[in-house]
Every structure is written in structure tokens, then in C-alpha cells.
Amino acid sequence: MSTRLIGASADSVEAATAPLRALDLPPRPRNRARNGLAIAAFALFTIATCVPAIGGIEVDLGALVRNWSNGSGLLVQLIQPDFSFLPRTLEPILETLQMALVGAAAAALVSVPLTLWAAAPTNPNGVTRHAVRTVINVLRAVPDLVYATVLVAMIGVGALPGLVTLFLFNVGVVVKLVSEAIDSGDHAYMEAGRAAGGSQLQINRATALPQSWPLFANQWLYALELNVRISAILGIVGAGGIGRLLDERRAFYAYDDVAIIVLEILVVVVLIELVSTTLRRRLV
Amino acid sequence: MRSAPQRPEAEVTPSASGSWSIRLDDVSVTYPNGTTALRNVSLDIAPGEMVSIVGLSGSGKSTLIRTINGLVPVTSGTVAVGPHTVNGMRGRRLRSLRGHIGMIFQGFNLADRTDVYRNVLVGRFAHTPIYRSLLGITTAHDRELALRSLDSVGILDKVWTRAGQLSGGQKQRVAIARALTQEPSVMLADEPVASLDPPTAHAVMNDLRRVNAEKGLTVLVNIHLMDLARMYTTRMIGLRDGRLVYDGPAAEAAESDFEQIYGRPIQPDDRLGS
Amino acid sequence: MNARTAPPLPPSRPSRTAASLWAIVVGGVVIAATVGLRIDWSELGDVPGDVLRYSTLMFADPNWERLPRALFEMWRSISMAWIGAILCVIVSIPLGMLAAGNVGPSWVRLPLRVVFAIIRAVPEVIIALLLLTVTGLTPFTGALALGIAGIGTQGKWVYETIESAQEGASEAVRAAGGSTAEVARWALWPAVAPALMSFALYRFEINIRTSAVLGLVGAGGVGSMLANYTNFREWDTVGMLLIVVVVVTMIMDAISGAIRRRITGGPRITEKRSRHVVGIR
């Protein structure tokens, strides 16, 4: 390419009267092969996702159009909420909030020792550290509702499986994010403790814990925000809260009631986020 | 592609013969937030002059230099560059005028994730039809100008490097090359060395002086360091609170003149040293 | 708390009454919420035992005979996630650009931002679920629903990225006489493209999880299979499915994460230092 480029320049040079001067031009690095490969990989993957024979999805616009003419009425209902339904939603939404709060609080308690266990500066023992991290990563790879489904089958319908789901999910989030933050932070402060001959536990208690306090507080609040969203849908698989009512009304195609529930979830989510943002500004 | 006939826009008048004068007549600038950055500034700069604009930050230097290529619109007064009146110009005409005015910045203003070559070709935009620049199609003439500019500031070997990987001094040279690629009639520099270490700062100032000497370009440099202004420019303009408070030969500017421009005693920071 | 070892010298310890009061209030609310929940807390003691018992049923001897079917369904979930991510990105990049300050006019920008905020506030699963009821429960509609449900977050990322792009390069292009389109192409796009691509992949990672959830409510894919076998209480198959979900999700995360790091880190240019001496004016 570089030669062609210079060849092009030379064309105009011939026309010019100025004297020729040697110009050191480094060769242009080419990454056409790599770019081509990336594009090919992207195209292949996309095509493979559209082949029903191997599990890909069948793009069927006709069915979509047919269903749409049946279902569009429901969307019209969605913008006409039936406010008389509101009283019936209060108890489930309260249950949702309770689950969110209790789940987050329980996870907050458990997350502290686990986090210090999973971070390198606070746990020099590589074996236990990696064990905790692996468990946390596995925990996080399972979608929240999948937990809930399995837990409902194990311990029965109700708020308890929902609570356990939230708890597990929160522990995963907090431990992962805070331990990574501790890892990437500056730990000069711990050296002083070590130099003074403190045990790891003493050092953690006296320095690492106060130092990571804002990190924890931040993630606990984040977990609470997430919980409100998740607990709103847990009921879909029978794990308590407003989701159960939502799924029931949806199954009856009562989209005017559904609209109220969605509106309510929206309000609650926004409120919790406002509270959490205010608190975060104070704490951190 | 390379044999494509050159469009009229791609033809550039030789810069040396096209060096332009700059004339500001009673210019004031008030920003939409109410800050007045320039108050009744009048200036007359002849073609081929090398002028420094000295003042503290907030004195209106940056605003002054940006009125010349229309990046900041004037509130009142007139700005004329060469045969053109800048204020009132819009759209295609303003862009084509900007094509004749090179500018370099304190923060280099390169697209860091793009290679040096593409950054320098930005200098040809005003002379290139938009569809071509959007598709990245260049003419042989543009390519040659770009490479020649890079060579003239001594960093041709970095042509395929991403701008973000260069050092500060190298970035500023790419920026100068970008401006030279425009084949400009006027060169503006807004605090070109404020982000550089002393040796690099001197090198960049030297580059600018060479541009002025070899191509006869009118060069306007914003600077807050008194020794650089004295050393590299022939004429100095002092700004304080948006008013013109000094205009004279740079070499003759005394400490007291600088104290008057700064509105305070000279401090060690006001000199770069070497 | 530590009052018994009161130091003999001033200054006295700053008051912590406010902090203690807050701690009591928060504790009180949590306890009230705990008591208020309709949970028979005596069951809580059985939970670890139950989980252990069922975990043994699930993982002691997973039913690998259904692995091919599980992989088939997993691929269906991934397909939903992928197509959903592509749709989401195709829609959110132009919308997000219009919603960015200095790009779109304010009468476009503000309504778009409100729409993004509303879509963000409602959990994605609910949006997808509502759309699925209307469009029918198929993997394709699942992908559509994922695409729409993600627009809120994705659109916000796009406009925040564009707004945080350094102004400098844009100013330089304008100073050289570039038009708005040229500013977008040569100053903004190079600055934001890697971040946008990285966000697109991140959307895919999120969608993999959400698509499994959509399967639970009947959109097909591994979620549907999991829901079925959980209902049949075929625990060994459920165990196998969970293993598949976890392993495949982690693998996809790892691949996608590696690509994202490559993108944001920029391409590695292998520079061959051979020099061509050429003639030029």
C-alpha cells in the first residue's frame, strides 16, 4: 500500500517543477486480514443465531404481524390504567419492598467477611481466596429468576424463596464489586499495620475495614436498588411480591390493571433510586 | 481513485504569496452567560508578522484568537482576515475561510484513537467535498501535502501511529502539521506550549518561528510566558480583562510592561526558563 | 460504646449521636420489614437442609443424556440474546446520538431522554413480558422484546459517551473548516466507537441472562426447558441444565469480556520497521 500511495504522490510530482527530495516513509501497517476475520466472525455468528435447525431463532415476521393485530388492543389498554385496582396492589408492593430490604440487609451482613476473604490485600492465602471467588462467580452466572424457579420448587411458593434469591444475588454483587475495588485500590495503609506486627485479622479490622467502608455502603445501596427491580419480577415464578399479581393480571389480559402495577413499580423504583442517591452523596 | 480529476476546491493557492493581514476593529465579545471576554479591541497585523498575545488566563486571549476564524462570534465590531470579513460569515463560506486559517491548540485536539495520517488530513476538509471526507477518500495531492507537512516538522516516521500513543511534543507537531496541510494564509496558536516541558516548548516555538520565516505566514501566538514572547516573536500585544493594554515590539517589552499586563508583580511562573 | 476508657485529656470525642440514631432507625426499619414478611421463619432453618438435599439430587449424578437438547436450547437463548443486542444497538445508537447535547435539538433531546428514563425504570423482564403477550411467545419475539427493553439503558450510555467525548478534536475539525458531518465522522466517531462497541457486547452479556429468564415465562430456549423439568421435578436434568447455563454463561462472558478489553485497549499495530526511501516533491 505504501508504495502505491507514494506512486500516487509521484504522479503529481512529475507535474511539478520542484526538485525531488528523498522522503523516509515508514510502511503502513496493514490489518486488513484481522479486520476481515473479525467481520467474518461477526457475520458467521449472526447467521448461526438465525438457523432454527441448530437452535437459532426463526425470523417469522408474518406471525408477528398476525399476533400484533390481536395484541395491539392490549397496548392501548396499557395507556389507560384502571386506578380502581390500586388498593389491591398495595399489599403485594409492600411485600416486594420488604423482601428487597431484608434481602439487602442480610446480604450486607454476610458480605463483609466474604469480601475481605475474596480480596488479595486482606487475604494473602491464595487457596481460600480463589475458592471464595469461584463460588461467587458461579453464583453470579445464574440469572436471578432461575434461582427463584429452582428455589420455589425446593421450598415451596412464597416470599421465602424470593428472599433467598435476593440474598444470594446481593452477596454475589457486593462481594465481587467491593473485593475488586479493594484489589485495585492503594493499600499502603496496610503496610503500617504489618510493620507494627499486627495479624491479618487485626490489620483488616483496624485499617482495611474502615478504609473500604464507603465502598461497601455504596454497593449495599446499589444492591437495594437492584432488589427493588428484581423482587418486582420474582412473583412471576411464584416467589412472592407484586410480580405474582402482575403475572396473574397479564394472564387474564387485564392490561389496564397491569398498567397500574407497572406504574407503581416505576414510581417505587424511582423513589428508591432518589433515596439511594441522596444517601450515597452523604455517605461517600 | 488516485487518477480522479481534482475538484476546484482541492486547488490551493501557494501559501507564501497568500499570507494575510488581520484587522480587528472595535471588537467586543460577550458570551451567552453574560461574561464579557473582549472589550473594544482594535488591532492591525500586517501579512508575515509574528505576533504574541500575552495575558493571564481569563484575559481574553483565547477569545481573541477564536474570533479570527469565527469559532467565537463577535458581539460587536468587525474582524477582517485578508480580503474577507469574518463576522456575518456562515456555513460553507465560513468553513472555506477557515480552510485558509491554520490553528493549533493547547490541548493538541487530536483524535487520539485515529492514526497521525488521518489526523493530518483533517487539514484538507475545507478543500474536500463532504462525501469524500466522510468516506475517507483522499486525492493524491492531499496525501502528498499531508506527508510533506509531517516531514517538515520531523515526525514522518510516526505517520501510521495512533495519535494517542505520541508524547505531548509529538502531538503538538502533528497538530502543526495538520495546520500546515491546510496551506494556510494565517496561523493561529492558542497556548501551544502550555502543556509541554521546557525543551519541547522551545522546539515547538522554533517550529512556529520557522513557519513564519520560511513561508512568510502571519503567525499569532497566545502565550502567558514573558520570556518566550520576547524570544520568539517580533511584536507583542498585551491583554488584561479583555482590553488591549500593550502593543509594541516584543524584544523591547520591559518588566514593567509585563507587570502592567498581568496587573501584578512578575512571578517566577511567568518565565519558562530553558 | 468506648466510654469506659474516657481519655483524661481533651479534646473530647466528637458526638456520634446522629450516626447512632440513624443506625437505630435503619435497624428498626429492617426488623419491622423482617417481621412484617409473611414468612414462617421456622422454615428458614430447613432451607439449608432442603437446598443441600435437592442439590445432591441435582448435582450428584446429573442427567447428561439430555445434554444435546440442553445445548440446542442454550444456543436458542444465546441467539435471542444476540439478535436482541443487535436490534437494541441499531435502534439506540441513532436515538442516543439525537439525545446527546449539542447534537440533537432540545425538543427531540428531552422527550427521548424521558422515554429512556421510563424504559430504564421498569425492569426489563416486565417490558419484555408485556410485549411477548402481545406479539406471541416465540424466540423471535423474545429477541425483539430484549431489543426494545434494553433501549433505555443503551440509549443513555450512547448519549453519555458522546457527551463525554473530548471537545478538543471537534474544535480542531471545525477550525480547519470541517462541517458538522465531518466533525461527527472524524472527531466524535473515532472517540466513541470503541466504547459503543464495548457497550454493545455488554448488552449481549446482559441479554444472555435476561433471555434465560424470558424462557422461564415461555419464550423458548434454555429457560423454558429448565421451567419444564423443574415442574416435572426431574432434578438430575435440572442439575445438568444449571451446569450448562452456568458454564456457557461464564464462557460467553469470558469471550465477550476479552473482546471488549481488546476494543477499548485499541488495536495492536505490528510495526515493521523496514524503510522505503521514496521520491517526493
From TrEMBL, chain B:
Residues 22-266 form the ABC transporter domain. Signal peptide: none annotated. GO terms for cellular component: membrane. GO terms for molecular function: ABC-type phosphonate transporter activity; ATP binding; ATP hydrolysis activity. Pfam families: ABC_tran. Keywords: ATP-binding, Cell membrane, Membrane, Nucleotide-binding, Translocase, Transport. CDD domains: ABC_PhnC_transporter (cd03256). SUPFAM superfamilies: P-loop containing nucleoside triphosphate hydrolases. This is Phosphonate ABC transporter ATP-binding protein. It comes from Microcella pacifica. The gene is phnC.
UniProtKB/TrEMBL annotation, chain C:
Residues 74-256 form the ABC transmembrane type-1 domain. One of its GO terms (molecular function) is ABC-type phosphonate transporter activity. It is a multi-pass membrane protein. Keywords: Cell membrane, Membrane, Transmembrane, Transmembrane helix, Transport. It holds the Pfam family BPD_transp_1. Its main location: membrane. The keyword Metal-binding does not apply. GO terms for cellular component: plasma membrane. InterPro entries: MetI-like (IPR000515), MetI-like_sf (IPR035906), PhnE/PtxC (IPR005769). It is found in: Cell membrane. The keyword Transmembrane helix applies. The chain crosses the membrane at residues 21-39, 81-104, 125-151, 186-204, 211-232, 238-259. It comes from the Bacteria. Belongs to the binding-protein-dependent transport system permease family. This is Phosphonate ABC transporter, permease protein PhnE. It comes from Microcella pacifica. The lineage of its organism: Bacteria, Bacillati, Actinomycetota, Actinomycetes, Micrococcales.
